[in-house]
Automatic annotation (TrEMBL):
It comes from Gluconobacter potus. It is found in: Cytoplasm. Homodimer. Substrate binds at residue 41. Keywords: ATP-binding, Biotin biosynthesis, Cytoplasm, Ligase, Magnesium, Metal-binding, Nucleotide-binding. Belongs to the dethiobiotin synthetase family. ATP binds at residues 17-22, 49, 105-108, 189-191. This is ATP-dependent dethiobiotin synthetase BioD. It catalyses: (7R,8S)-7,8-diammoniononanoate + CO2 + ATP = (4R,5S)-dethiobiotin + ADP + phosphate + 3 H(+). It comes from the Bacteria. Catalyzes a mechanistically unusual reaction, the ATP-dependent insertion of CO2 between the N7 and N8 nitrogen atoms of 7,8-diaminopelargonic acid (DAPA, also called 7,8-diammoniononanoate) to form a ureido ring. The gene is bioD. The keyword ATP-binding applies. The active site is at residue 37. Pathway: Cofactor biosynthesis; biotin biosynthesis; biotin from 7,8-diaminononanoate: step 1/2.
Length: 218
């Protein structure tokens, strides 16, 4: 487990649009990590998460791994690929060899279809990285968070911890940690603007890798 942990983490969320990219940028900045989003969709509407993380974390080109697949439609990889007559080949979804930590960002939540016989949780399992689970801080988050943690543990996937995004809610944080048998890694408050400066400030709250390595739960 420690070998995998030293290689990085997989950032997933309890939903889409929840803050995975922001959290990925914070982790990359804190650890001077390399970033990889293997499955990018929605390029018809935006420039993509890779460029966003590059700019927010101030990463050099050497710290960016291009997506294995990049689709135009803002849909799950399976649906977006169907529109372009492309089927995802799992052989292209293997961990790149990099120097230092690697932060891998998923697409949507755990049960998002990648191909007919593969979902994001299957990809996570195959890569063998501990998970950082991004959640909302407010109402409804306990149910979504505990369901996601249960799905991960059913596969034996290690969980590094949870990162709530939004206005502080100590009661929800307490219950997510207690009932989910996990830890709150750090918090991302409601931000007026998401900038390289705010990412740099938040990166100071991220635990060190060697500390987290001893705390990963399964």
């Amino acid at each position: 487990m420690s070998t995998h942990w030293q290689r990085g983490v997989f950032v997933t969320g309890t939903d889409t649009g929840i803050g995975k990219t922001l959290v990925s940028a914070i982790l990359c900045r804190a650890w001077n990590a390399t970033y990889w989003k293997p499955l990018q969709t929605g390029l018809a509407d935006e420039e993509g998460d890779t460029l966003t993380v590059r700019d927010l974390a101030g990463l050099s080109p050497a710290r960016i791994i291009p997506p294995a697949y990049a689709f135009q439609a803002p849909l799950a990889p399976l649906a977006a690929g169907d529109l372009e007559n492309v089927t995802v080949n799992p052989g292209r979804l293997v961990l790149p060899q990099v120097q230092g930590p690697l932060v891998v960002e998923g697409a949507g939540g755990l049960m998002v279809p990648v191909r007919e016989d593969m979902m994001i949780v299957d990809l996570i399992e195959s890569l063998g990285l501990p998970v950082v689970l991004v959640t909302r801080s407010g109402l409804g988050t306990i149910n979504h968070t505990l369901l996601s943690l249960e799905a991960l543990r059913r596969r034996g996937i290690p969980v590094a911890g949870v990162v709530p995004v939004g206005p502080p809610n100590s009661g929800n944080e307490r219950d997510m940690a207690r009932f989910g048998k996990t830890q709150i890694l750090f918090r991302v408050p409601q931000l007026d603007a998401i900038t390289e400066t705010s990412v740099a400030e938040l990166s100071g709250n991220v635990p060190l890798l060697d500390v987290l390595q001893q705390q990963i739960s399964q």
